[in-house]
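Figure caption, in words: inputs first, then the predicted bound structure.
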Amino acid sequence: MFQGDDKIKTNQLFTLAIIVLTVIFVSGCVSPDSISDYMEEIQPYVEDIVTDNIHEETHPDTTVPTINGDLLTVHFIDVGQGDSILIQINDKNMLIDAGDNWSGDTVVSYLKDNDVEDLDFVIATHPHADHIGGMVDVIDNFNVMRFIDSGNPHTTRTYENILIAIDENDIPFSLAESGQTIDLDPSVTIEVLNPVEPTGNLNDDSIVLKLTYGEVSFLFTGDAEERAENRMIDEGYDIDSDILKVGHHGSRSSTIQEFLDSVSPEVCIIMVGTDNRYGHPHEEVIDRLNLFGCEIYRTDLDGNIIVKTDGRDYSVETQNSGLVIPMTAMTFALTAEA
Ligand SMILES: [Zn+2]
Ligand SMILES: [Zn+2]
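Bound structure (zinc ion present):
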């Protein structure tokens, strides 16, 4: 599991990463060679940080319910075109992504309104600006206890500024790898399902997480596309989840039919901006989701979307419509299974 910290090694890692990235930045291109060089350079440090604390069991059986009455809240924050998701349970907080460069204030005030002071984990699913743009504001405003990255360097000032902020604030840093679990709270299991190792395709190397709390599960996909979806299916991972954060803002490059069938979600959440220049969400994805029969929520139409669960039932609330699915209406045959 990701626990503990090692500031000396973190500092070494970051000094090295910044040097490598600066070289890449100046040279102006990321080639597969420069990525593998980068990985090779930082690997000894990363290994030291991660493997001491890693959960050895790969993809543990998460079907055993651990329902104890705690409330888990997952906020899909409306940051326009981009992702930012806050997960809260028992005073623990985890942030997945921080929206685009102009979203820092939105994310910071949303977190403050929800009593966040410490962030136990901050995940950057991948280094595209619509996922990490607000990250420096987050680091400046909260006590980040561990930062988890997908391990792909990016040649942008935005990414470099995050590394500098992490270094200046002595934030422990880890690279996510399929098979790890993230130890947020004993009530929940959070598995890393992607990437296996960085390939240089930023979207497909997105950190994909499955969160299970009792009988209720979430799949957070970042911008993972068809190739990553196929890999997770081929690996035989248990990706079946009640709530799916639809991949890549509803782009047709993601959410292939086989993946949707395997996830088999009841609720599909699309994080997308009004009139975005990509035409997200693509019509064929919406059609596919409708045909499948999941309830679709979209941040461009619904604003912030909040899912609350006690591990048995869940409710969905939206900023624009209030309570949409009350917990009591979700009657699963859970007691029989439990
Ligand atoms: Zn994106
Ligand atoms: Zn992306």
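Residues 128, 130-131, 223, 249 surround zinc ion (ligand 1) (CB under 6 Å).
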